[in-house]
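User: For a benchmark we're assembling, each entry needs the component sequences followed by a predicted structure for the full assembly. Here are entry 17's components. Please fill in the structure.
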Amino acid sequence: MDDQPIITKFTPKKPQGLIVVITGNGKGKTTSAMGMALRGCGHGLKTTIVQFMKGDLYSGEWDGVKMLEPLVKLYHTGKGFCGIEGNPYAHSEHRKNAQEAIQLITRILSADDCDTLILDEINNALQLKLVDLDQVKNIISSRPAHMHLVLTGRDAHPEIIELADTVSEVREIKHAYRKEIEPQPGIDF
Amino acid sequence: MDDQPIITKFTPKKPQGLIVVITGNGKGKTTSAMGMALRGCGHGLKTTIVQFMKGDLYSGEWDGVKMLEPLVKLYHTGKGFCGIEGNPYAHSEHRKNAQEAIQLITRILSADDCDTLILDEINNALQLKLVDLDQVKNIISSRPAHMHLVLTGRDAHPEIIELADTVSEVREIKHAYRKEIEPQPGIDF
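Assistant: Structure for entry 17:
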C-alpha cells in the first residue's frame, strides 16, 4: 500500500503485570492464550505456558511454540480425559498430575524467568477440584509484580474473576461439531 | 511427569475448510486468530493473515509471526484510527485501503496458496462500510473448499454469522483500561 502512515510504538509509563482470565464455553480460550505468547515474541518477551489436563491428544500448539523457542516454553501436564466421557483414570490420578503442575508453577515463580505465565485450563482444573482455590490465589499473590498471569478455561471461579484485571468470556454462538463436522487440525486442535 | 499417556493424533476422515467468526466487544479476537496461525504451524499448515484498518500502532504479532515464516505471512493494511476519536483521515481514504485489501485477498484466493486465511477486523471494516457485504460473501463462496477462513472483529454481520460454521462471541466482563491501567505490551498489543 502506498502512503503508509508512521508507525507508533506505545510504551506504558507504568509497566505492570496483569491478571487476565479467559473463560466461557466457546472456542478460542487456549487459542487466545497462544496468541498472547506469539504477540509477546514481537516485544522480545518471554512466555511460559503450563497446560493442565492435557496430554493424550496432540494439539498443534505443542510443535507450533517450538518455532518460538527460546522465548516461549510449553509444558503439558495431565492425562487428558478429565471431566469427559470415557475417562479411564481415577480423580486421584488427575489430581496428582495437577498438583505436580502446581509445584512446577511454584518453581517458575521463584525463578522469575518469564514475563508472561499462561496457566492453560487451570479454571477447569479448579472447578474439577484437581487444584484448590487457595493454591490459585497463592499463585496470583506470590507472582513477581512485573509478571502477567493468564488463566484460561471454562467456569472461572468468581474469586479469581474478582482478582483479575481483564476478563473475557468466550461464548459459543455456534460450533461446527454441532453439525457433526469433525475437529479440523489447525482450527480445532 | 512419569507415567505419560500415549498421545493420539486425530485425523479427520473428511477434511474441510471451516468458516470461523470471532466477534464481540471483549479482548481476545485478534489474539485468538494469531493462536490459530501458531497452532496451524504444528500441523505444517500455511496461514495468511490480512489485517484491516491496522497500520499506525505497532502490535507484537507483526514481528512475532516472522518467527513462523515461511508458514505464516501477515499483511497489515489501512491507516489505523478508523472509527475512533481523533481520526485524521477521510472515510474515503480508509475505504480505499480496505478495497486494496479486498484485491489482495482475491489474489490470495486465486493463488490458493494457504490452508487458513485470517481476515482480521474485517467484521469492523464491514460495519464501518469500508467493504461491502457482497464482497465478504463473495470471499466466502469463492474460497477453495479446503481453505479455512477466520473472520474477526466486533459487530459481525448477521448474514456472515449465518454462513459460518463456528462462531464465538468474546464478551468483556472487565478490562484493565477501565481501572486506567495503560495497555501493556504482549497482552494488549
